[in-house]
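seq:
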Amino acid sequence: MDLARVALRAAKEQARARGAAVQQKKQARRGGGLRSGSGADGRDPLPLGAAINRLITERGWETPAAVGGVMGRWPQIVGEDLAKHCVPQRYDDARDERVLTVRCDSTAWATQLRLLAPRLVARLNEDLGHGTVRTIKVLGPGGPPSRSGRLRAPGSQGPGDTYG
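struct:
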């Protein structure tokens, strides 16, 4: 799937380059290069949304951006009750694992989320595209500390279960 996105991005860039070359030839035939005027050209500013979308596409950030959107809509996806007690912490697609880590405020809610994990993975993939999330790692209130920071003990890990 990632290979298809890369190929699509390359094809779009080639088409854009061909279009720019044709435009330059037309302008050269008319007797001049780029001119100031009412016609749009490559120097015109982009609307903010278009600029952000272009950056996301060029950098290959489509999946992390989509997952970030899901984290923003978490209560609508899992329901208000579950969202009050279980919060998505991070999404890791390194080494093609595609793990969504969720922390719950009690062991009871962590158990509830573990039971719902297969349906939640299916729901997330329905929203994001097949295979975007493969597993959900459920952390209870005594889960491992964050991996970053100066005060983390080297090699420290706490209990964390992965479901999917």
